Automatic annotation (TrEMBL):
It comes from the Bacteria. This is NupC/NupG family nucleoside CNT transporter. Its main location: membrane. Keywords: Cell membrane, Membrane, Transmembrane, Transmembrane helix. Residues 205-419 form the Concentrative nucleoside transporter C-terminal domain. Residues 103-201 form the Nucleoside transporter/FeoB GTPase Gate domain. The chain crosses the membrane at residues 6-22, 29-47, 99-120, 177-199, 205-225, 262-284, 361-382, 403-422. Belongs to the concentrative nucleoside transporter (CNT) (TC 2.A.41) family. It is a multi-pass membrane protein. It comes from Parasediminibacterium paludis. Pfam families: Gate, Nucleos_tra2_C, Nucleos_tra2_N. Residues 8-80 form the Concentrative nucleoside transporter N-terminal domain. It is found in: Cell membrane.
């Protein structure tokens, strides 16, 4: 029975999307069911077929190599810095079993952004995205623009994915625009995914979650805002492969520069948000003492109560529901960095995970928080896409909160399906 607990989650998630729909009579149920079926196929292939599972584990190991390559570059800059190893001894930054977030993560993001820029310059990234988008277009019968945008979101950042469909943004329907925004919020960029792997999350879970998020976002968004207009790109998938760089050196330079900006933004967000969380928790604790509450009041305690029903419905074992519910709350109201940081945090003395959870709960949590769907990302989307297509800024603002809902529910849907398959 525990295996099928997640069926309640699927029903609940689809019901929430249906209730929020602006035109229930125009929902394309063929698209909805084909999208869910595509999610199931992806999950079965990655989680249950040994050949595919081993491939994704191999990809995860290669991601580990990327971290080492990045560390080689960072060691030239930070080589004289001594840090504390897991054993407690003082060693150089380049030594094995050392990890300093500001140094290691910054280096990894810069390297990945440089690699993506190289792939983009030679047209490799665009062609991979186009092939997968054509398959999704054929299976789900979505328009070319929204298929391209959603698939691209599984590889590049939430604004960069929209750059790939720049020529179509002006003429996209409201339904297409919501689908595109939802996909960017539900998926995770490659450079950020590697950050979570550095935290200690399993690469195969994150890769699967990001791939499943593309059809999931289309399913949810097409329930919330069904297509009622004529799309300019229905049945076609055309992607411009022209490189914005003069040569490969220019691509590396721009990629590294963009990576540094992203890394600094990540560090700034973490410092700001975690510091504010400490402040809020301090004030909540004082409030709890003032009112003589039996429990220690904190944001995690509040989130664990608010998100308890959805966490249970997604199939999380009862013993782990409070922890997963707290992570869901942290992800949507603060950001996914804080959620993943808490999911993978280890005790400095014992080197054991602080948040002790079953493998199933850890997997469901990893899927559910693997995405950009949070309040600050909505602002980034409106601002970033608004710069690309200024004439759509009003529509973007109108759709912002709906996109947040769709991106969140899409991640939950992927997590629930994965949980059912794991048993």
């Amino acid at each position: 029975m525990a295996r099928f607990q997640g069926l309640f989650g699927i029903i609940l998630i689809l019901a929430i999307a249906f209730i929020c729909s602006n035109n229930k009579k125009r929902i394309n149920y063929r698209l909805v069911f084909s999208g869910i079926l595509l999610q199931i196929v992806i999950a079965v292939l990655v989680l249950k077929v040994p050949v595919v599972t081993n491939f994704f584990k191999w990809v995860g190991r290669q991601i580990g190599h990327i971290e080492e390559f990045a560390k080689d570059g960072a060691a030239f800059v930070w080589g004289g810095v001594f840090v504390q190893s897991n054993s407690g001894a003082s060693v150089t930054y380049r030594s094995p079993q050392t990890f300093i977030f500001a140094f290691s993560v910054t280096a990894t993001i810069i390297l990945v952004c440089a690699l993506v820029a190289i792939f983009y310059h030679f047209g490799i990234m665009q062609r991979i995205v186009a092939v997968i988008a054509k398959a999704m277009n054929f299976i789900m019968r979505v328009s070319g623009a929204e298929a391209l945008s959603n698939v691209a979101s599984a590889f590049v950042g939430q604004v960069e994915a929209q750059v790939m469909i720049r020529p179509y943004l002006k003429g996209m329907t409201m339904s297409e625009l919501l689908a595109s925004m939802s996909g960017s919020l539900a998926c995770i960029a490659g450079g950020i995914l590697i950050v979570y792997v550095n935290f200690g999350a399993k690469a195969e879970y994150l890769l699967t979650a990001s791939l499943m998020a593309a059809p999931a976002a289309l399913v949810i968004s097409k329930i919330v805002w069904p297509e009622t207009e004529e799309s300019e790109t229905m049945g076609t998938v055309k992607l411009e492969v022209k490189t914005p760089y003069r040569n490969v050196i220019d691509a590396i330079s721009h990629g590294a520069s963009d990576g540094f900006k992203i890394a600094m933004n990540v560090i700034a967000m973490l410092i700001g948000f975690i510091a504010l969380i400490s402040l809020v928790n301090f004030l909540l604790g004082k409030l709890g003492i003032l009112f003589h509450l039996d429990t220690k009041l904190s944001l995690d305690w509040i989130f664990s109560k608010l998100f308890y029903p959805i966490a249970w419905a997604m199939g999380v074992p009862t013993a782990d529901v409070n922890n997963v519910a707290a992570l869901l709350g942290q992800k949507i109201t603060i950001n996914e960095f804080v959620a993943f940081s808490n999911l993978t945090a280890k005790d400095p003395v014992t080197n054991q995970l602080v948040m002790h959870m079953s493998e199933k709960a850890t997997m469901i949590a990893s899927f559910a928080i693997c995405g950009f769907a949070n309040f600050s990302s909505v602002g980034m989307q409106i601002g970033g896409i608004g710069e690309i297509a200024p004439e759509r800024r009003g529509d973007l603002a109108r759709l912002g909160m709906r996109a947040l809902l769709c991106g969140t529910l899409a991640s939950y849907l992927s997590a629930t399906i994965a949980g059912i398959l794991m048993g």
